[in-house]
Amino acid sequence: MAYWQAHLDAQGDSDEFASLPLATDDILFIEALYANLFDRTPLESDVAYWVGRLTDGGSPSVEAFVESVEYLSLLGVTDTEPTVV
After folding, report:
1. Is 63 among the domain residues?
2. Distance (Å, whole) CA 41 – CA 48
């Protein structure tokens, strides 16, 4: 997971990504994440939450989305509790 997170983070810093409209428009960015990960448009409350996080200086990490209950349920993962090995 750390490998892919680093790879995704590096993509976000690329010139190619910076040239995309969604790189400078928070709403487009959130809508793109929802379309690509959840195959749906976000609710107004979803957009408000994530735009609020961005406005407060936070960042919606891809990890937060791919570890969400909604995304895991799309993958068929039903047990989202951490397992101690």
Report:
1. yes
2. 13
Q: pLDDT by residue for the chain (85 residues), tens digit each?
A: 566 555 555 555 567 656 665 556 788 888 888 998 899 999 999 999 888 887 777 666 677 788 888 888 888 887 766 666 5
Range of the domain at 18: 2-74
83 secondary structure, DSSP code: -
Number of domains in the chain: 1
pTM of the complete model:
0.60
Q: How far is CA 62 from CA 10, 84, 85, in A?
A: 12, 24, 25
Single-letter code of the amino acid located at 82: P
DSSP class of residue 21 equals G
Q: Is residue 60 part of a domain?
A: yes
SS3 state of residue 66: helix
Determine, yes or no, domain membership for 79. Answer: no
Helix (H, G, I), strand (E, B) or coil at 53: helix
